[in-house]
Amino acid sequence: SEATRRGGPDALAAAGCIDVLAPDAAEPWPAVAAERLIALAPDLIVTGPASAAALRARPAFAGVPALIRPDGILVLDDEMLTSPGPALLDAAERIHAGAYPR
Questions:
Q1: Spatial distance between the Cα atoms of 91 and 12, rounded to a whole number of angstroms
Q2: What is residue 93's predicted lDDT score, i.e. its pLDDT?
């Protein structure tokens, strides 16, 4: 599954996802312009609560596959997105479950 990251590359890789922002990212949690997000067309977006609400509220993103699906945005606690260590495993497990539902 392809995913954009707001939660860091390590958790995405551990979850078996392709980080579509990797070629563009000079930092772990880059800001992504609307045009770039539309062009990437991810089927899963991993982000925190505030960003998820903002993404769903913007009509410009209506064609992004992740935003068409009701489960296309995986919302993780901000601490889980930014804390290394045990939180990384929890994040990876949640991302994997969101990207590869049974």
A1: 8
A2: 92
Are 95 and 3 in contact by the 8 Å Cβ rule? The answer is yes
Distance CA 42, CA 82 (A): 21
Listed in sequence order, the residues at least 6 apart from 93 whose beta carbon sits closer than 8 Å to its beta carbon are 15
Helical H segments across the chain, by residue range = 9-14, 34-40, 49-57, 65-68, 78-82, 86-99
Grouped pLDDT means (10 residues each) for the chain, 102 residues: 53 85 67 83 88 86 87 86 76 90 78
DSSP letter assigned to residue 16: T
The gap from C-alpha 32 to its chain's centroid, in whole angstroms, comes to 11
Cα 93–chain centre separation: 14
* Maximum CA extent, the chain: 37
